[in-house]
User: Fold this.
Amino acid sequence: MKLIFQLSGENLPLAAAEAAAVAGLRKYKVEGRLLVVNVAGEAGAKAIREAAKRLAYTSSIHRVLFTANKKTLDAKIAGYKWNTVYKESFAVRISSHIAKEGSHSAKEAVFSEKDLAAIIWKKLKKPVVNLESPKTAIEIIITPKTVYCCLLLHKLKHDFEQRKPHLRPGFSPVSLHPKLARAIVNLTGIKKGALCDPFCGTGGLLIEAGLMGFKPVGYDIDDEMLDKAKANMLHCGIENFVLSMHDATLIKHKYDYVATDLPYGRSSKATEELNSLYLSFLQNLKRMLKKRAAVVFPDTAPYTALIKKAGLKLAGEHTHYIHKTLSKKIVVLE
Ligand SMILES: C[S@@+](CC[C@H](N)C(=O)[O-])C[C@H]1O[C@@H](n2cnc3c(N)ncnc32)[C@H](O)[C@@H]1O
Assistant:
């Protein structure tokens, strides 16, 4: 079946990579804010249901019933066997992914939700319209090249704002926004087991791992940070975690999945020290990593050279703008 993921516009490459990692997508195309992909069989459908519970940078997932163009849409809608997908009630929504021209959006200029719903109404045995919460949500997604006629499968529920760092008992100004933290954990492709953060700080990444049902394992060199992480985990209802005071460059255990946001500083002396800390950590990561890691560097760090020197494989990289003087590089390592 053909699916469309509606991606969050703030970082499209990251959004697409997150969806691909969690849903196990290999071949897909990104058209503006849409990720279009073919998924096969019950295994594929199950992966999509799981992804819908986890993804941070996807807002909805749709099944494509058929494609059309602006000229053929009415006729294709009239020809479709709507009784095969209809359940209890329906509504039609149009979303346009064509840049607005003048004061008229493409949606206003070409189609009306009411007119399209009227065509479908005539084709149904027992039509009921429910605009608030239709059981059959029909979405017409218009892009410059194609009109996708879809069923809404999942509207993703996101509650990241509720656990922003300043709303947690153990505050740290450098803890990442939970939405970004979630995407970073997801980039590891974890499906089960433990997620290790060797520089866990107040636990921003571990919280997201715990909320997705994975076992959070955190290390930090600073016991005050570990106390804060513990308070934050309990505050978020996570109990099955392990936190331990340890130098990240000396961790002996091996882990399938690692996600971490490296410490960073600004002065040039700190930079030299940090680069040597990054290298020691990456060399240890090479020993301790069994599957995949997502590691966040300040974008000023010579991360590609350090990764190469440590003998790790760079499987993906993304830039995330934090503020005027700070962007982060999120790298996926194997
Ligand atoms: C950028 S912060 C992590 C922020 C964290 N993701 C959070 O949500 O608060 C980096 C953390 O690395 C810790 N750290 C610095 N050097 C370390 C080392 N050698 N081993 C372990 N932790 C270290 C610091 O104490 C700090 O808490």
Observations:
- The radius of gyration is 23 Å.
- The chain has a mean pLDDT of 94.
- Residues 127 and 305 are 62 Å apart (CA to CA).
